[in-house]
Design brief:
Blueprint lengths: L7 E12 L2 E12 L14 H9 L4 E7 L10 H8 L8
Antiparallel strand pairs: 1-2, 1-3
């Protein structure tokens, strides 16, 4: 039985991100499809947050293209959640 492939939900085509005067993730191609689940993993400083910021539009894609519906990608991190929780007890966080 053949698997049906859904159309792209978010697609990077030849994309490069700019941070300051540096181009990062040069010429990146990646397709995110409905029903898929992705995790960005790697050591501290490897660029996970930067890449996610490019998908959300917080860091500009200066070469190539990033297509997807507005608000389709959100960035959720442990650091953000700690800020939101403030001084709440650990059980509440």
């Amino acid at each position: 039985m053949a698997r049906t492939v859904s159309p792209p939900f978010v697609e990077l085509t030849g994309a490069s991100l700019r941070v300051g005067d540096r181009l990062l993730f040069r010429n990146t191609n990646w397709i995110f499809r409905r029903g898929e689940h992705w995790a960005l993993i790697g050591p501290n400083g490897s660029g996970k947050t930067l890449f996610a910021s490019g998908l959300t539009g917080a860091v500009p894609v200066v070469r190539g293209e990033c297509h997807g519906p507005d608000g389709a990608v959100a960035h959720v991190s442990f650091e953000q959640q700690k800020c939101v929780a403030g001084n709440a007890p650990a059980a509440a966080r």
